[in-house]
Write a structure and sequence with these properties.
Blueprint lengths: L8 E2 L5 E5 L2 E6 L2 E6 L4 E6 L2 E6 L4 H22 L2 E8 L4 E5 L2 E5 L6 E4 L4 E4 L5 E6 L2 H13 L10 E4 L13
Antiparallel strand pairs: 1-6, 2-3, 3-4, 5-6, 7-12, 7-13, 8-9, 9-10, 11-12
Function: This protein binds to the 23S rRNA, and is important in its secondary structure. It is located near the subunit interface in the base of the L7/L12 stalk, and near the tRNA binding site of the peptidyltransferase center.
Organism: Ruegeria profundi
Family: Belongs to the universal ribosomal protein uL6 family.
């Protein structure tokens, strides 16, 4: 039995939701997002509460029940507060700066890495060693942050590279003579 799906999703003030068929559209102060649920669940909006119920008790229906509830909750969170991923750059000479819509990264390669911010995501570099990725779509924000991190992943010997803020890198000891 899904325990997540049972919990109704409350709509904060300033946020409206409308259901048409299997698609729910959520409008808030930061924008509009929509999600199309599978045929295994039913969506309903009553009294500023979004309720998700399964159509039957098959394993797939119960899986979709909890997942759909989480997706709707993430839509509401995105249009009210938005999502944010912070990255730290560590390493001598490693730095980041914004030029218009392009993030320029100096990561020890023979060339600069230019990363163009996709539509719906805002990238800022408050310091040369920090990058902040913000947006209303949680998946897109996480994907963009992961792509930036992939340019120079943190290595375990010196800890150089791009890491998420607060990420712990397990350090290894180097060779001994």
């Amino acid at each position: 039995m899904s325990r997540i799906g049972k919990k109704p999703v409350e709509l904060p003030s300033g946020v409206t939701a409308s259901v048409s068929g299997q698609t729910i559209e959520v409008k808030g102060p930061k924008g509009t997002r929509s999600f199309t649920a599978t045929d295994d669940v039913t969506l309903s909006v009553e009294d500023n509460v979004v309720q998700i119920n399964p159509r039957g008790m098959s394993k797939r229906a119960r899986q979709q029940w909890g997942m759909s509830r989480t997706m709707v909750a993430n839509l509401i969170e995105g249009v009210t507060n938005g999502f944010k991923k912070e990255l730290e750059i560590q390493g001598v000479g490693y730095r980041a700066q914004m030029q218009g819509n392009t993030l320029k990264l100096n990561l020890g390669y023979s060339h600069d890495v230019d990363f163009v911010a996709p539509e719906g995501v805002t990238i800022t570099a408050p310091k040369q060693t920090e990058v902040v990725v913000e947006g209303i779509d949680q998946q897109l924000v996480g994907e963009v942050a992961a792509k930036i991190r992939d340019w120079r992943r943190p290595e375990p010997y010196k800890g150089k590279g791009i890491r998420y803020k607060g990420e712990f890198i397990f350090r290894k000891e180097g060779k001994k003579k």
